[in-house]
TrEMBL record:
It comes from Histidinibacterium lentulum. This is Peptidase inhibitor I78. It comes from the Bacteria. InterPro entries: Prot_inh_I78.
Length: 98
């Protein structure tokens, strides 16, 4: 290695020690307890077994997702979102948060 190469390496080492530290990431929010009903799905349990058109007669505030057979569904966790899963027969099969 030449003297110039060694000098460049030494300068790089000095400047690397002077680099600013990356900002600390904020802590991640705690996951809800299993079974926590953060989307109020329990209050809609009477809809299970009814035709999917029953959702048109219910006032649903907040994030709502209707999942029909064959729909592509993202795996993102949103505890405050209520999901209505529709069965092959066109009836509400399951209601859950997420």
């Amino acid at each position: 290695m030449t003297r110039a190469g060694a000098a460049v390496l030494a300068l790089c080492a000095v400047f690397a020690g002077c680099a600013p530290r990356p900002p600390e990431m904020p802590p991640l929010p705690a996951l809800p307890e299993p079974g926590a009903d953060l989307c109020d799905a329990g209050s809609h349990v009477r809809l299970i077994g009814q035709d999917a058109t029953a959702l048109e007669r219910v006032l649903l505030l907040g994030q709502v997702r209707v999942i029909r057979p064959g729909d592509a569904v993202t795996m993102d966790l949103r505890p405050e979102r209520i999901n209505f899963e529709i069965g092959e027969d066109g009836r509400i099969a399951r209601i859950f948060c997420g």
